[in-house]
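Collaboration report, partner site 2.

Our partner group contributed sequences for two proteins of shared interest, and the home lab folded both. The records are reproduced in the order in which they were received, starting with the first partner submission.
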Amino acid sequence: EVQLVESGGGSVQPGGSLRLSCAATGFTFNNKPMNWVRQAPGKGLKWVATITDNGMTIAHSSVQGRFTISRDNTKNMVYLQMNNLQPEDTAVYYCQVDSNRGPGTQVTVSS
């Protein structure tokens, strides 16, 4: 059974940073691209970033230069380093593999 558990969310002021983590179990982690998606209040899910099984990354234009996705295949972990956070980044952030997501972690950016 695929299980994904996100952590690291919180409340920060604009310009602040957070590092999200996702612990993955129940599948062959090394073989799968991993994704971060987010859902802002009252809105649908939006893709944020992807890292392939061999470490290539791509991110949405709205977070390029501010967010960095990474993975540690020895620990079955995926990360999202978020810098220069802005109020529009406020959302629940989910780790996703195929159609599976974790429970999410809340990120709130407010002054």
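Second partner submission, folded after the first:
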Amino acid sequence: QVQLVESGGGLVQPGGSLRLSCAASGSIFSLGWYRQAPGKQRELVAVITSGGSTTTYADSVKGRFTISRDNAKNTVYLQMNSLKPEDTAVYYCRARTSGGTSYWGQGTQVTVSS
């Protein structure tokens, strides 16, 4: 069983920055961040594989967001810069095991507003 604990959401002005963290227990292959805005489907934001060798980003966040991973702490981070109002959403951490099983965090609210 994998448990995920997210932190770091909040309210920020457009152009500001936030860093999300997700601490995982158990053996994880990949970790990622997804988001869901009101009335919209959940979408991929960024994913990073074991060891940090491969990262994937949604086109909408490329150049602004950076995903990183501390394997010693089994923690994934999402550094979000140049935030826009359209980045407002609940952000979820997702962990996948080598066997393909997915686990989700409880979600953390990110609001970008002046």
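Feedback sent to the partner group on the second submission included the following. The radius of gyration is 13 Å. The mean pLDDT is 94.
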